[in-house]
TrEMBL record, chain A:
Family classification: Belongs to the RNase PH family.
Pfam families: RNase_PH, RNase_PH_C
Highest taxon in the source lineage: Eukaryota
GO molecular function ontology, one term from the record: mRNA 3'-UTR AU-rich region binding
Presence of the UniProt keyword Cytoplasm in the record: yes
Domain Exoribonuclease phosphorolytic: 31-153, 190-226
Listed name of the protein: Ribosomal RNA-processing protein 42
Localization per Swiss-Prot or TrEMBL: Cytoplasm; Nucleus, Nucleolus
Keywords of the record: Cytoplasm, Exosome
SUPFAM superfamilies xref list: Ribonuclease PH domain 2-like (SSF55666), Ribosomal protein S5 domain 2-like (SSF54211)
GO BP term, example: nuclear polyadenylation-dependent rRNA catabolic process
Automatic annotation (TrEMBL), chain B:
Gene giving rise to this polypeptide: DIS3
Name of the protein in question: Ribosomal RNA-processing protein 44
Named cofactor requirement(s): Mg(2+)
GO cellular component: cytoplasmic exosome (RNase complex); nuclear exosome (RNase complex); nucleolus
Pfam families: OB_Dis3, PIN_4, RNB, Rrp44_CSD1, Rrp44_S1
Annotated organism of origin: Spathaspora passalidarum (strain NRRL Y-27907 / 11-Y1)
Amino acid sequence: MTLLSPAERSYLRDSLTASPIIRPDSRTPHQFRPIEAKTSFLSSSNGSARVRLIDGSECIVSVKAKVVDLASVSNLVEVDIDVDSFRDDSNFVTNLKFHILNSLANFPSTVLKLTTKYGYKLFIDVIVTSHSSYPLTLISLATYLALKTARLPKLVSEVNDEEIAEQPTFADDWAESTLIQDLLDAPFQPPVLITLGIIGNNIIFDPSIEEEQIIDNSLVIGFYNGRVITPINTISLSSISNGVNSIVLVKALELGNKYGGMVVKALDTLIEQDIDDENIF
Amino acid sequence: MITNRKRLSSGLSVTSKVFVRSRNGNALKIVREHYLRNDIPCYSHACHKCQEIVKPDAQGQLPKFILSSSPTKTKDGVSHYVVIDTNIILHAIDLLENTQCFYDVIVPQTVLEEVRNRSFPIYQRLRNLVKSEDKRFVVFHNEYNEATYVNREKGQSINDRNDHAIRKVASWFNSHLNTENSPTPIHIIFICNDVDNCTKAKQEGIDARSLVDYIDSLPNGEDLRDLIPSDIVLPGNFEGDQNETVFPEYYSNARIMAGIKNGTLYQGMLNISSYNYLQGTVSVPAFKKPLLIIGSKNLNRAFNSDSVIVELLPKDKWKEPSSTIIEEGSIGADDNAGDDEDDLGEETGGVVSDKERVFLAQEAMKATSSKTNESRLQPTAKIVGVVRRSWRYYVGQIAPSSVSEETGHSSRSCFVILMDKLLPKVRIRTRKAKEYLGQRIVIVVDSWPSNSRYPNGHFVRTLGEIESAEAETEALLLEHDVEYRPFSKNVLDCLPKEGDNWVVPDMTDPQDPQLKKRVDLRDRLVCSIDPPGCVDIDDALHARVLPNGNYEVGVHIADVTHFVKPNTALDQEGASRGTSVYLVDKRIDMLPMLLGTNLCSLKPFVDRFAFSVIWELDENANILKVDYMKSVIKSRQAFSYEQAQLRIDDPTQTDELTNSMRVLLKLSKKLKQGRMDAGALNLASPEVKVHMDSETSDPQEVEIKKLLETNSLVEEFMLFANISVARKIYDSYPQTAMLRRHAPPPATNFETLNDMLNVRKNGMSISLESSKALADSLDRIVDPNDPYFNTLIRIMSTRCMMAAEYFPSGSYGYPEFRHYGLAVDIYTHFTSPIRRYCDVVVHRQLAGAIGYENLDLSHRDKQRMEMIVKNINKRHRNAQFAGRSSIEYYVGQVMRNNEAEHEGYVIKCFNNGIVVLVPKFGVEGLIKLETMGDLATANYNEDKYELTFTDLKGAQRTVAMFDKVTVDVKSVKDEVSGKRRAQLMLR
């Protein structure tokens, strides 16, 4: 962790609390750090995405689907997160996992149902190979991309197997597999988690590692179906921990509603430009 | 989905394939890298370019160019190569093997792989065609060739993609040979019976023809037309026969897999009852008794011994096994006979859920395991899928009544009655039906669509006149899948170059280190005892008294493995034949004659290599010491059983050799007694021997085989050697030792027989606690008035027994090694390597065990041993059946001239007939009720196994199980099946 000297801290704090906000990397308050992303690059996964930040943070997400007996499983989406240099049972990783899983609570699992007995279970595997700032947004963006591009093989056996059992059989052509969106017959937009930093009454999107050390508090908000959704959580990223006042909270929601859509749109554009290129070389 | 290529180096590029594999209900995404190269030649002698691009393989061999530069021509004189499509190979492999057509054939790799996935036997035949090079078949690896590899387009089915790849091969060959380099034009003809594919090919400028069109374009096309398979002439169906009946469609694979998993469907082998071709049983591990399949609708197009999927029928459809005899009679009259009409209502019953089926299965389990006999109802089932067809070549003859009178040149369909009574008649199309009447012909079954009452097949070749010895012999060899073609050149090449002049090398100056390990036993007084006229002598014996009063006894077995080395063509041929087959007038050897009758045969007066087992035995034949060694022996005499017996019995003979045989006899009696005390079974089968006239080789008379003391002398020592060797190889190779086991018979097998004995013979019964108990109880079953009765019961018990089988020792636990019939804990076959492949393997394992040589990997690998064992078990069974049917045929011929009255025994009772066994000929025959008396008056008492009826003279008569009856034995030829069989008439 980069430690800032008292002079640097004071300088940063002054510029971030100023109006207009001046961010150390000259971003506007609602601007994300530039990301570089690639989808469908893991050939043996149903869907995959890799997102890199300008500071070298990188996250890889793979989505795999497995056919399960619906009666034997409780949930159809499972998330596993691996962060470089953190134990799997550490608070840090468990928290990340909780946030991601929580955000997927309203995943349209009906599309995963194949027959009356069988369905797909999605296994979302996340690896954060390197990170400096809190990686939740990074993970969330990569997960969004992986889920959006995940393809599910097409079932060719009987759908109704309540009376007479049938073992699910699938079309052998990968090209016949379908996107979740096509199964849903509606736009499919998994929730995106956005980290907001609060300094005094100012709010900044996607705080960098230096900013994280200055800010009073952080908020994680979900964005789904065009607006901010609950739950909204506070997390403390630095040693400073102040409460969040209601004015700031309202402001945060406003900003979230305003800019969340742009984030999602940017990701969708990225997929459009990237899709149909399954070259593994 | 196929993605772009990337060049790795000059001449090699890589691409990838992505596809979905459904396995156990899961969908796996599979990604494969696929490498493409540019040095795959076209294999044509006409090509100038490919000679330069070829590269040697891993062994440094350059690919061989096969395709002729002046290939065969069509009627119009066009030199051509042929590219064939998968469906042509699958349906017309016989035509491809025909020597009159199909030369210079290009088999695209795509086609080869499709063939392998669809039918492994056909794949192997295709492989052999390519290997033999006679017909100039080549496999072109188009999938690895840069120029011919095609991508799967989006949304294209894999079949369409493969069709595209095959067409690409045709067009590539065309441009490669003709526009670039061949001096003479070579036309490429693409043969394909798929209309759509043909059209596409034509659009791409390829000369695509259907098989019929191609055959017609050949100079000898007229002769070949009949050989074109039926479903290719008219895809699907014979016209006019459509919808004559509707069999239920088979279940989808997805449903079958799930059904087997949740216990509502079962898989097993179908056994058609030999008395009723409309009734079969399927043995399923889940139930103690086999499931009954009754009626053609429930049998649903399955053939005898097909591997099938069955579903239980509702409980109200459960039945007793039919006690009626039904044979598939002549065509026409009974075309509509035999079907249970009540089956029709079944489909209307609505959907039966899996839950109900599971409940039904539990009911069935209860019913099959209940000990009480209160209900004889057996669960019935219907066939809902065929996993593997047992289709092969079938021998039969054209049913005369199915041949139309019209003379014409167009081909017509007619029925072929197969020799195997358990199989339905097959419809074929031919223009020469009249010509083939009265001949044994070979056919192949092509398909059995659900809307056709009979399976469709096509003619392959004719064997000759019915009842001519050659045709009948060949027919029964074919029917039992016995390889009888002469040994091929590469097999004969493995024999010693010296041929008949081969002699044992000089032992005093051994160059070969292996000769050093051989023990010189030429001083022992060895002799052989075999049936008269035996030429393949594979065992010899010796005995002598040791100074300490004990006996040294040696069993010497022909050292076949000295000549048959592992992994040679000779070894592979022997392994695939598995056993020699003995017919009445012919022997089909497992190994070439030179070995069997000369080099390996332990002939008298010459030195021979042998594998010897030498024991030191005490007065009571207990083993004190046992040694195994490769040796050199010199047999002093080759006796027949009778000669040996006479010599032993003659008190004036006091020479050493005779005395040693007396020692052997004495010890063999002790061994036999020991075996009997342990509970070895003495079962019987009605064995007969046919005497042939030496000049005309016509069968003269039938004799029941006699057994002499010397028979049992040889037998005892062979058993003794087998047991000793089995222990030795099991000790050295606990996982892969080749052993033979005989499982105890399940009690259910004896249920009916015991019930019959109980009812008919005042509570006599066969005890099943142990082999000893069984042997003793068999001894007790005697009818004081009828000495043959005991033998009869022994014959019937034999039929209730399990078959002995070979197995690698790792497949069972030690307690299950037991040989029930011989009452020994471990057993194998060691003593007849000339005529059994098992013994060859055992010889090699024993040689390994005593450190003579290293054991080949194939006999140390469990999986490969499993494969060997599976094959020899099958071959062994087939050889037995072939031998039996050969005897049956000749007995039929003998009876032709010896019609007379004989004694017989009732061994089966039905409500419309009885089956009688005639010990004199060892034949059994069915006597139908209508030939005995009035059908209407018949009354069958199932509990007492007796049939009461008014006979033709008007008298009341009762016949029952085990009754001794007098019958007229007559040999009649069945006009329909062309089979001669014993016709019995009750006196």
